[in-house]
Design brief:
The complex is a heterodimer.
Chain A lengths: L2 H6 L4 E12 L2 E12 L3 E6 L5 H8 L7 E6 L2 E2 L5 H9 L1 E4 L11 H12 L4 H14 L15 H12 L6 E5 L7 H18 L2 E5 L3 H7 L2 E6 L4 E5 L2 H7 L3 H7 L5
Parallel strand pairs in A: 3-8, 3-9, 6-7, 7-8
Antiparallel strand pairs in A: 1-2, 1-4, 4-5, 9-10
Chain B lengths: L6 E6 L5 E10 L9 H9 L5 E12 L1 H16 L3 E3 L5 H10 L17 H34 L7 H11 L4 H25 L6 H39 L2 H7 L4 H40 L3 H11 L2 H27 L5 H33 L2
Parallel strand pairs in B: 2-3, 3-4
Antiparallel strand pairs in B: 1-2
Helix pairs in contact in B: 4-9, 5-9, 6-7, 6-9, 7-9, 7-10, 7-11, 7-12, 9-11, 11-12
Classes of the chains: A alpha/beta, B alpha/beta.
């Protein structure tokens, strides 16, 4: 987006959710979700297990349609736009799935190359340069010819991040980035997320319930409640920790201490 | 008062009517512990008992056995309006009981265990069936769209992938196809020869084997081998990709999984099953010749010319048509079951099993329908 266009978006919202209800069949997971994700936010989607965090992520990346309500990305209503427009919008997304979701039959280099081959007209040599650059960004230079099964879980996640960043996305989505990582690796991933936001000015959406990550990277958040099936708080998690009027949220953010 | 080596009961009437339960010895699961029913009987007989008190000074060892006994007593106490006073128990036991009763029992019944009547089951079966059928139609529709896009040169797939899959389903299946076709040819020859020999018409083994292999058995056996070998592999591959979120990852990059994953598999089978069938039929006919020549004294040249006389392009056409249909069926069943696989390891197993079952059932149904159609058309 150009600088001019960005100033025209008065409220600076990158993604807008309006009255979203999501359901599997007749089972409502969450209802009445209304919030904005601003440009360059690191936006945390948090809540207890089974509250619908991952489902909300699926909704945001266009894998699942909401039962009602609108999602606007850069002021374009996603589900009412044409298929071509949807495809274009999706190209602006980078997603790091919970398990990395690398294509297991392809090497790391081929994993990063696939989106580049599909959507750019780069030459073979240029693609290789991009692969080398993206893999080195996540600290995996030299692993081009490894298969996903040959590297550790933390490395798979970082490789997944390299693939997610292949097309220089405007929005990066992370599904439980620290799940299954040791404290050091998960800290390193957090630092990487912060670094990416600072250097690339990407909007970042993270689904997590790791308090350490929430406080160190998040500057905005939404809290989904499993019992009432709706959002019960939104705002900067560091402020919510002390100032949130809802006791349940304060309890969550203080690890049960009231 | 009842008592045994594990406990003794004593009643005291200090302020309230209380039952003191004195526990002694080894309260462990392995030892033959008393059941709470004794206490239940006592409570039923003495309904004015207001409190149960424990004395556990003489317990030497305890484990889960003691805890389950106490939980039973607590339940009894609740149903008889009797107070349970745990203060006389070892501290560890009290903590464990506290932990076990901290979260109230989940009351809602589990859905899947609900008993269904026969009519309800029938209804559920019909609902599931129509749902499955509409899903299958949906999948066929998606494949058709992908095929049209392929013909217009717009499909997103890697030709390289197609070649790899072709190699996997075609040349690598040769050994097993050879073995099975050879044995089937041998069986056909023997079965016919024994009868034909009675009329001195051994030379017609050639007709029997060649028409049998080319028209029917070649395609059928290849189809069944490929269903077990390749259909299962497709379902497992796609199912695992589904579990790993790899298919979601493709979608987020705007790559259609149908075009990228299903199309090359479909094409590979449509190309390879007829070729393997042709090859298998030739192997089968060769096996038939060996039997005719070595066991039933037919000259090999005679057999060869008789085979040529029996076969014409029509027979080959029938066999190839069937093989192509089987190829479509196997690819469809394997890919469909794989794509609709759930998100767990057991779901992959189910997908694989149902891919094989679906394709074998459909192959046999298609075989009989095609046979009837060709008969009616007089081909």
């Amino acid at each position: 987006m150009t600088a001019l266009a960005r100033t025209q978006v008065a409220d600076n919202a990158h993604i807008k959710l309006h009255d979203i209800t999501m359901a599997y069949g007749d089972v409502v997971i969450q209802r009445d979700l209304t919030f904005d994700i601003n440009h360059e936010d690191i936006f945390i989607i948090m809540g207890g297990s089974g509250c619908g965090k991952s489902t909300l992520l699926k909704l945001l990346i266009g894998l699942k349609k909401p039962s009602s309500g609108n999602i606007e990305i850069d002021d374009v209503n996603f589900w009412q736009s044409s298929l071509e427009q949807q495809g274009k919008t999706k190209q602006g997304f980078g997603v790091l799935f919970q398990s990395g979701a690398l294509w297991s039959s392809l090497t790391l280099a081929e994993n990063v190359a696939l989106p580049l081959e599909e959507y750019t007209k780069l030459s073979r040599k240029q693609i290789e340069e991009v692969i080398d650059y993206k893999l080195s960004l996540v600290g995996l230079a030299g692993y081009q010819n490894f298969y996903p099964s040959e590297i550790s879980g933390g490395m798979q996640k970082r490789a997944g991040l390299a693939r997610a960043m292949a097309l220089d996305p405007e929005i990066l989505f992370f599904d439980e980035p620290s799940a299954g990582l040791d404290p050091l690796s998960s800290r390193r991933l957090d630092d990487l997320i912060l670094e990416l936001r600072e250097s690339l000015k990407t909007t970042i959406v993270v689904v997590t319930h790791e308090l350490e990550s929430i406080f160190s990277i998040g500057n905005n958040s939404v809290f989904l409640d499993a019992e009432t099936r709706t959002m019960i708080a939104t705002g900067n998690p560091n402020k919510l920790r002390t100032d949130c009027p809802v006791a349940k949220v304060r309890e969550f953010l203080n690890r049960g201490k009231k | 008062m009842s008592s045994n080596e594990y406990y003794s009961l004593a009643v005291s009437h200090d302020e309230v009517d209380a039952l003191t339960l004195t526990l002694v010895g080894d309260w462990r699961l392995q030892s033959d512990l008393p059941a709470a029913i004794v206490i239940q009987r006592y409570l039923e007989e003495h309904s004015n008992t207001q409190e149960i008190v424990f004395n556990s000074i003489d317990i030497t060892q305890w484990d889960t056995g003691l805890c389950t006994f106490l939980l039973n007593i607590i339940e009894l106490g609740n149903s008889h309006n009797t107070q349970i006073n745990l203060s006389g128990l070892p501290e560890g036991v009290r903590r464990l009981i506290g932990l076990a009763s901290a979260v109230p029992q989940f009351k809602q019944t589990h859905n899947s265990k609900k008993q269904q009547g026969y009519i309800e089951q029938l209804g559920q079966f019909v609902i599931d069936g129509t749902k499955g059928a509409s899903e299958a139609l949906h999948f066929i529709g998606e494949i058709s769209i992908a095929m049209t896009r392929l013909l217009r040169g717009k499909a997103q797939y890697k030709p390289n992938d197609l070649l790899l899959i072709i190699q996997d389903v075609g040349p690598r299946a040769l050994p097993i196809v050879t073995l099975i076709s050879f044995l089937v040819g041998l069986i056909l020859a023997y079965m016919g020869a024994v009868q034909l020999q009675q009329f001195g018409a051994q030379i017609f083994i050639a007709d029997l084997v060649s028409i049998g292999m080319v028209r029917e058995m070649g395609a059928l056996m290849t189809g069944i081998i490929m269903a077990g070998r390749t259909g299962a592999a497709f379902a497992a591959q796609l199912g695992t990709m589904q579990v790993n979120e790899e298919i979601d990852a493709l979608k987020t990059f705007g790559v259609a999984p149908i075009e990228y994953l299903v199309l090359p598999r479909m094409l590979a089978l449509i190309l390879m099953v007829p070729l393997l069938t042709l090859y298998g039929s030739i192997v089968g006919m060769f096996a038939g010749m060996l039997i005719a020549v070595f066991a039933f004294d037919v000259g090999s040249f005679e057999y060869y010319t008789q085979t040529l006389r029996a076969l014409d392009m029509q027979q080959v056409f029938v066999g190839m048509t069937k093989a192509t249909v089987y190829g479509v069926i196997i690819a469809f069943a394997g890919c469909w079951r794989g794509m609709q696989c759930g998100r767990s390891a057991s779901a992959v197993g189910e997908a694989t099993t149902s891919a094989v079952v679906t394709s074998i059932v459909l192959i046999v149904v298609a075989a009989s329908m095609l046979t009837i159609i060709f008969q009616v058309l007089g081909i």
